[in-house]
Design brief:
Layout: E1 2-6, H1 10-22, E2 27-30, H2 37-47, E3 50-55, H3 68-81, H4 96-114, E4 120-123, H5 131-135, E5 144-145, H6 158-172, E6 180-183, H7 191-199, E7 205-209, H8 214-221, H9 224-229, H10 241-260
Helix pairs in contact: 3-4
């Protein structure tokens, strides 16, 4: 159970923290150059919270420590990515350096705040899957990367299905992926979460949540989630450390082998 937007602002951080204390959230995806990024990093380090990097290309940086030129580059990317619904799927050669700059700046900021390189990387609004990031291989090799949403009970067209399979294959060449990925909502009908929790008995499943959403926050801090889990354990971190290290080394070795070929 991973909560997005850690550090976006104080209220968001606090709600995620309460869910972690409640035992219903395993880890968080941390934003940098945001209003509460520095304080959130201090909280995470003190409380030993498993945090990964939540790459942000679309929501304006609100931190006082963010350089002006970095804000301008982000505005440039946001204007393109939000210009139309298919922009993220189109590789833009004129923005190659801009994407590279923003990814590197956020990786460096995470290292400065948390003292380590991020072991996990995902994207705000899932923009880590946009064509320039994916085809430019901008995410650190060997890291955990968030896959596309798993189909589950939803019907999908051939084009969407092909996109999902192709994207996950590209990611798997350089990164570690969970077996399935879902959003916590919708909470109703119950069949959605029943399927998610049933899969979690046999596979590694990531569930994305946003506790700043009142409905999700109430569910994560209330008794109903424990009843629905029916004995399925929520991991205390993103993955057990030994397994995560093993998988990461395996993917890194595979990536290096392909580059030698």
């Amino acid at each position: 159970m991973n909560a997005d937007d850690w550090g976006r602002d104080r209220e968001t951080t606090q709600r995620i923290f309460e869910c972690i204390l409640h035992g219903t959230v395993s880890s968080a995806s941390a934003m940098v150059f945001m209003e509460d990024s520095e304080r959130a990093a201090e909280v995470a380090l003190e409380a030993n919270i498993d945090a990964g990097l939540h790459l942000n290309f679309t929501t304006p940086f609100s931190g006082r420590d963010c350089p002006r030129h970095l804000r301008e580059r982000q505005r440039q990317l946001a204007a393109y990515l939000l210009s139309h619904r298919f922009a993220r799927f189109v590789f833009h050669p004129g923005l190659v350096r801009c994407f590279d700059y923003l990814v590197k700046a956020q990786l460096e900021a995470f290292h400065r705040l948390y003292g380590v390189e991020p072991a996990r990387v995902d994207g705000h609004h899932h923009m880590h899957l946009c064509a320039n990031v994916l085809l430019g291989s901008l995410l650190p090799v060997g890291t955990f990367a968030r896959r596309t949403f798993s189909r589950g009970l939803r019907r999908e067209g051939l084009l969407r299905s092909a996109y999902r399979r192709t994207t996950d294959r590209i990611l798997a060449r350089r990164h570690v992926l969970t077996d399935f990925f879902f959003h916590l909502t919708p909470l109703e009908p119950a069949s959605h979460l029943e399927q998610v929790f049933e899969l979690a008995r046999r596979f590694t499943v990531e569930v994305e949540t946003h506790p700043i959403n009142a409905e999700e926050y109430r569910f994560l801090t209330g008794p109903d989630i424990l009843r629905r889990l029916s004995g399925v354990p929520i991991a205390s971190g993103f993955l057990p450390a030994r397994r995560a290290q093993h998988l990461s080394r395996h993917v890194l070795a595979q990536a290096r082998g392909r580059s030698c070929d």
